């Protein structure tokens, strides 16, 4: 490709270039205005009718009830399916088709459809890059913009939210959850198919590490990387954050039954959008709204389903945020632990075993309703929770159990893939016999006094003792950046990470880098032969693919003074995780040749200074620094990384300020306050927290 000439940049020779019109006739006819409208309607409502007609909608129909369809669409897809411009990921590439199907149904039902777009990034694409520093903060940004778009269509009667992936779908759920009095339905964007021959999108993200360690050839890496996506649209084929978010949306009752994880681009996928549009119109006619669907009971059901499917630990950030948006009490660690202890894992889906089926098989095995049948039999669900259908969950499950839909999709799985549906969504006795363990454990200790998270179900079974306990004592390999850590995992820096190491990755929480997702490390450890013998402990987060013991969300984070940031190379660490009883501990127990109790270790750590390499990432964007400070005031990672407006306003009101004139601050749901005069503005999240210690809303 050659640089363009100056002439081609400043002018063109297109033949019809100068056929320029300076006036147009405008739509024919007249708006269906009334005396009442002209006298009492806001001017914005009237101008909106003009805009509707100007875009070409039939003038006689512009007073129809308005419904907004929001999506995370990305890319430009041609009518023939070929890309005109690529999206960030397959998950949002085809969702415009869902929007169109929903819009056509709203039109058929004599509603007036509107569409808006807030695209989303790809966590897979940003792994190991500075783009990951914007990932989790983007969720909050997108939720804000989505809410603003909803409010900016003042006479909307309901909202259909179409989304699929790691940040777009949680953001959409947060936005719709906050529309308490509005009819809303989520349309999950579905999943991409696995390749006929090749690796899934979870495993393929480790080709760099496996090649660097000599596990695969260059040719294998190139071919596997090319063909991992078996279809152009849909979220990943494994039960990571994207797929788990779809499951949770349905479990909350925000989606229609059997909507999560449908194969993108296929008729059964499009049909979900049609019926969802029908549902939001029906909700309006029957008076059903979000605050009647999102309740403490539906939140409980979502947490139970999350545990039963072995979903991504990232939902421990997103479910509390959705609850907060809905005005519900956010679940605490104790509630997560109680539910995970009581709920068996029943789903065999990538990246978990024993087989590891792709997500489309979870859908064909019956998906969320099939899983809920087993959970109902165990007495773990609250069946009175309303769903997007307007019916309580108990009625939905009665329908599903006897439905033709259930029989037909399960038969497809048998015939097409030769898989018994009960081997994907298992009856409890079968799951127990095959060694499936509960999902999430929350280890504490002198490294994580506020707690941490480990996906116990992902720990390689060969590393457990006869009682299902993972017990490791090893020496620390300390890293303050993901870049250094992955180089050592790949063997590109010395000493290389090896079996038995306790890999500490600190300073990667919100204040350090926006709480990056360390998937490239966890996936590499999973697919390298020695990886199951390496323990990872970090204040960052990760999605579903892990092995060994990958422990994240360590609190407090290192840059908030957490003891994880005071560890040093060669410190001795003891990790104990009981995968059956879901208890665990992570403790510093020795330095040099000396060993001591966890209590003595806590005293040593308290007297240590932070690791000399510990610092906020030099490339940390200012936007992310601001997000980190604000979410800390909303309860931090254990509170869902939300913006608690009351807490933020209160903090600003009481912080020292430049100048001397008093002023007031107010926000939605907050009363005016008058801060004392001051002389400076806090420079960082830590400074802001220091001025508001004890005032956070958790």
TrEMBL record:
<dbReference type="InterPro" id="IPR042096">
    <property type="entry name" value="Dihydro-acid_dehy_C"/>
</dbReference>
<dbReference type="InterPro" id="IPR037237">
    <property type="entry name" value="IlvD/EDD_N"/>
</dbReference>
<dbReference type="GO" id="GO:0005829">
    <property type="term" value="C:cytosol"/>
</dbReference>
<dbReference type="InterPro" id="IPR020558">
    <property type="entry name" value="DiOHA_6PGluconate_deHydtase_CS"/>
</dbReference>
<protein>
    <submittedName>
        <fullName>Dehydratase</fullName>
    </submittedName>
</protein>
<dbReference type="GO" id="GO:0050401">
    <property type="term" value="F:xylonate dehydratase activity"/>
</dbReference>
<dbReference type="InterPro" id="IPR000581">
    <property type="entry name" value="ILV_EDD_N"/>
</dbReference>
<dbReference type="Pfam" id="PF24877">
    <property type="entry name" value="ILV_EDD_C"/>
</dbReference>
<keyword id="KW-0456">Lyase</keyword>
<feature type="domain" description="Dihydroxy-acid/6-phosphogluconate dehydratase N-terminal">
    <location>
        <begin position="89"/>
        <end position="395"/>
    </location>
</feature>
<dbReference type="InterPro" id="IPR056740">
    <property type="entry name" value="ILV_EDD_C"/>
</dbReference>
<comment type="similarity">
    <text>Belongs to the IlvD/Edd family.</text>
</comment>
<feature type="region of interest" description="Disordered">
    <location>
        <begin position="660"/>
        <end position="698"/>
    </location>
</feature>
<feature type="domain" description="Dihydroxy-acid/6-phosphogluconate dehydratase C-terminal">
    <location>
        <begin position="443"/>
        <end position="584"/>
    </location>
</feature>
<dbReference type="Pfam" id="PF00920">
    <property type="entry name" value="ILVD_EDD_N"/>
</dbReference>
<dbReference type="InterPro" id="IPR017798">
    <property type="entry name" value="Dehydratase_YjhG/YagF"/>
</dbReference>
